[in-house]
Amino acid sequence: DQLSSAALRAEIPVREVTGLNEGRDVSDARIVDRTEWIRAASQSMRSMMGGSENGDKPHFITGRITGAQTGAVLAFISSGILGQYDPFADNGGAVLLGYPNVIAVERQVRVAPADFRLWVCLHEVTHRVQFRANPWLADHMSNALAVLTEESGEDVSEVIGRLTSFVRDRREGVPPEPNSAGVLGVLRAVQSEPQQRALDQLLVLGTLLEGHADHVMDAVGPAVVPSVTTIRRRFDERRGRKQPPLQRVLRALMGIDAKMSQYTRGKAFVDHVVERVGMTRFNAIWSGPETLPLPTEIEEPQRW
To answer: Model-level pTM?
Structure first.
């Protein structure tokens, strides 16, 4: 009940701070456990990849990832995710809040439950506002995913050549291009050029969306969340703690560490631009795909 009411309370201050107000009624958040989140995530994956309700399976899942592997990934992620905005859910998108994980984290970092729950909702509601005020975002994401998951038709020798170059450059200490470090570099090495561009689009969009949401939750926070400073400090300390070896490997393989860096890098980008030009002028970024930052501009926001 408290999470549901917090999601509703978060909408107005988020609209005011962001200046993104599409005028639509506020829909209720879905409060889910881990099993329900996995079910919702599976349905969202089916929608994104072109499958259907009657069991049709998209080529990406049948051809490259087995159901068991997908289930294992979702199970691992479901144990830690606090909330999510799904732009591909029924009725034009939905905020999902995982109550078992919210409760676990608020106890772990020892913060006021009501404040922490509202703070989490501020982040996820910002995503809802982003997508509802800018309907093109969902299409942009879907188009990039479609390119990313289609068969490239490339000769195997071309892929092996890129992998060899990747390994050689890392051995010789050549600095990686943006979005090419660690497991992302290996992924890019086996992709065609259109797929690499699509991956860059998704990574940049994710970095912007997460960074913007983190910026907004801290900008709104002091007015509505009394203990926001303590929550942010303890939550960031939790993010930075060293993980057990097996968990570190799993996080790297699944790209979770890359996801965590999106919050930090994206927030630094948004903080810099908003400080320089204000939120109203920052919102030019939502005009369309052509105004999104380039991968190099995330690290150097003044270039954007």
So the answer is: 0.76
